[in-house]
Amino acid sequence: MGHAAQLAGDNAVTGFEIKGWCPGALRPMASGDGLVLRIRTRNGRLEPDQARLIAGLAARCGNGLMDLTSRANLQLRGLDHAGHAEAVAALAGIGLIDRDEAAEARRNVILSPFAPVGSAAWRLAEAIAAAMTAPDAPQVPGKFGFAVDTDTLALADTPSDIRLRPSGSGWRIVPDGGDWSLKAADVAEAANRAVDLARWFMQDGVQDGRGRMRDLLRRNPAPPPGAKPLAPPPSSYSVPDTGPGPAPNGWLLGFAFGQITPAQLTAAAALGPLRLTPWRALLIEGARQPLIPGAIMDLDDPLLRIHACTGAPRCPQALADVRGLARALAPRLRAGQSLHVSGCAKGCAYRGAASVTLLAKAPDRFDLIRDGGPNDPAVQGNLSPHRIPL
Ligand code: SF4
């Protein structure tokens, strides 16, 4: 690969503390194991040919590892600058590259993976993406995003600044953290009102180039015209399982650490079109109990509750083989317990709180943090991997 040495000294070393934006294809992010290129698929769906091409790029241009992200995107890892250029050219050929970095960053729309192709929700997500990549789109800060749901409200727990959900024969547009909403009669009006709500947010919601809807609403601004008190969601809705297992339109597969290999992606693409999900599961449309080597089929598999970064030997910053340790500890996790194992203090894999966070200090030494994240104080230090109390 050789890319790591090329990146040493730039943001590969210092970039982890950068917050407020996500990598894209045109604006990759330097990580410990090279450049991270995030592919924002159109409505979270990949045709089999697109998936096969991406699998080839991951193997040829990167280090062969891909991440399923919590924004329902797919990341290639370990690219050098030449590999990045090759990947961008290939992705442009299949319609997955935006006009420029800013447009790419604003096209932050998650569609429920259970929404049928061509449905009203599908068209609404497309319309918002088109409006947000237009030259006159509100210049929302990085990470500002939309979620377009269906009647099942599968995205109810997916962080998003503006949510859209069906309501009667129309749509309801809900700001994250708000107790009011806007109504729209059809897809076109819903897209317009959602983008107008983003414009309303821009009036007072951005400080130092950053901002989220929830933070703005904590400051109690006057709602925009037409806002009505938020009605509770219908009591009849039932959120479908988010996997692994059967889905309304196919089958959901889990992957340890949200990581998928080119071989797995190719095998999945052989069974049908793919939908990316914010639960880091992969949905194969129309599939029933697909057999993909290495995929997690069991909802109770503890590996689904473990975060672990690339670690040694692929990441030059890594002090330990964290994925090996994570797999060894998985059988000891209790029900509901989560674990984050990090190859160094940067904690790339997960910034949130886990039941137990382990930070490598040496190949066989770890600090332990309870109910916190990588930046919280350790309660035990210098632990041998054989003596870690979960
Ligand atoms: S060891 Fe892990 S946390 Fe540290 S830089 Fe590498 S990938 Fe990130």
TrEMBL record:
PANTHER family: BLR3264 PROTEIN, FERREDOXIN--NITRITE REDUCTASE, CHLOROPLASTIC. This is Precorrin-3B synthase. It comes from Paracoccus methylovorus. The keyword Endoplasmic reticulum does not apply. Residues 221-235 have a biased composition (Pro residues). Residues 28-92 form the Nitrite/Sulfite reductase ferredoxin-like domain. Keywords: 4Fe-4S, Heme, Iron, Iron-sulfur, Metal-binding, Oxidoreductase. Gene3D superfamilies: 3.90.480.20, Sulfite Reductase Hemoprotein, domain 1 (3.30.413.10). Residues 215-243 are annotated as: Disordered. It holds the Pfam family NIR_SIR_ferr. InterPro entries: NIR_SIR_4Fe-4S, NiRdtase/SiRdtase_haem-b_fer, Nit/Sulf_reduc_fer-like_dom_sf, NO2/SO3_Rdtase_4Fe4S_sf.
